[in-house]
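Notes from hallway chat w/ T.B., transcribed later so I don't forget. T.B. wanted the structure written out for a chain they're using in a teaching module, and asked if we could keep both sequence and structure tokens in one place. Agreed to drop them here.
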Amino acid sequence: MSTPPAKTRSGPHLVLLTVYAIFVLAAGSRSLVQVFTRFDEAPIAYSLSVVAAATYVAGWFAIRRAAAGATGFAKIMLWLELAGVVVVGVLSLAVPSWFPDDSVWSKFGSGYGFVPALLPILGLLWLWKRPTFGSTEGDR
């Protein structure tokens, strides 16, 4: 894989990578502690936090690769992440008994300042606005 052009590895791209890395640590740490210490209290919520953490790991790699022009995986991951936030957000409000404790995506990420809802949207906007050099026709 070639090194991405310097222009795409600055500004919004680096901010997205940084926020994703923070969420890998935050969601991953929180979910592992919850699963290993209190899983029986809220198994659905804690399992969904593990899924969210895994999504952030995949999202970090996808956005990193997208700077080099490989945008296909990033598009899929960002749409899946957004779908997860919306579905879990709706379910956490519609069926609160499934969420006696919050997951990362509960109530659309309100426990994290709604950043989980904004992050995939910002990632998709970055993909849409980013320069197209280095990409292949089939990957855009």
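Follow-up for T.B.: Confidence is low (pLDDT under 50) at residues 133-140. Might be a good example for the class.
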